[in-house]
Design a protein that fits this description.
Keywords: Signal. By secondary structure, the protein is mainly β. 9% of the residues lie in helices and 48% in strands. The strands form five sheets. It has a seven-stranded antiparallel beta sheet, with no helix packed on it. The chain has a four-stranded antiparallel beta sheet with strand order 5-4-7-8, with no helix packed on it. It is elongated.
């Protein structure tokens, strides 16, 4: 029988001691993070994926509890296949093909983690960009890539306004589009007749006047005239709404002095 310091010691006790020492050594070792793949896609409300055409969307992944940043980038690629997206039906249809814009990353996780996703865009339409957040639980080594990946919807419309000062007032022109840049036109999937667009003058919190903007050219150009500003007006606001979906967008321009 083995002895320890002169005392007889059963083999089972020695084996248990060795196991405890091994476990203690294992617990003392640093925890190794597991690379975990995640694919993020951003789809425009009632339209297609947000990618290169409108500058993509900024994507930030964080630990929800600590706020520690895990990955950052932007969606790149095309808007996707129109028929595949707009005619998709059924339960969780796969709308993204290989050409559809995405942000792919590998994040290091050591434990089950509640991950927060922040998306801002479209980056190429800063006047009317919006920000959204979402959360989901992730496990180390368990990828979030199945189907279309982690898909979030960017609600609203993008507006790019322009202002020309004339002798008889202000001429306002605005390019209106879904965040993916899909074309608004009389005969497109996004009919011009579905959109109500207006321009208004503001002085602080006071609206001094408002006129509708009419569709004047494809894709998505709306135009109109406002009287010469008075009463301390300092800002032009262009607002658009899709009458069918409720999607809205807004852009501001300071008035020239």
């Amino acid at each position: 029988m083995p002895t320890v310091s002169g005392f007889a010691c059963p083999a089972s006790v020695l084996a248990l001691g060795r196991a405890i020492v091994a476990l203690a050594s294992l617990l003392a070792m640093p925890v190794m993070a597991e690379p975990t793949a995640v694919t993020v896609r951003v789809i425009s409300q009632d339209a297609k994926f947000v990618g290169d055409h409108t500058g993509g969307a900024e994507v930030i992944l964080r630990e929800a509890e600590s706020g520690r940043e895990l990955a950052r980038g932007r969606t790149t690629g095309g808007t996707g296949d129109t028929a595949r997206i707009m005619q998709a039906t059924g339960r969780s249809p796969q709308r993204a093909g290989p050409e559809a814009a995405a942000f792919a990353a590998s994040i290091d996780l050591t434990r089950p983690t509640l991950v927060e996703l922040e998306v801002r865009g479209p980056l190429g339409r800063p006047a009317s960009a919006v920000r959204i957040t979402a959360q989901r639980w992730m496990m180390p080594g368990e990828p979030v890539t199945a189907g279309d990946g982690w898909v979030v919807e960017l609600s609203g419309l993008a507006i790019t306004p322009a202002l020309t000062v004339a002798a008889d007032g202000l001429r306002v022109t605005a390019r209106v589009e879904p965040h993916c840049g899909c074309p608004i036109a009389p005969d497109s999937l996004w009919p011009a007749a579905d959109y109500a667009v207006s321009a208004s003058l503001w002085a602080g919190n006071r609206r001094l006047g408002q006129v509708p903007l009419a569709f004047t050219a494809a894709p998505g150009e709306f135009s109109g005239r406002l009287p010469a500003p008075s009463g301390g007006a300092d800002e032009l606001v262009v607002f658009a709404r899709n009458r069918m979906t409720g999607a809205t967008g807004l852009a501001r321009l300071p008035l020239p002095r």
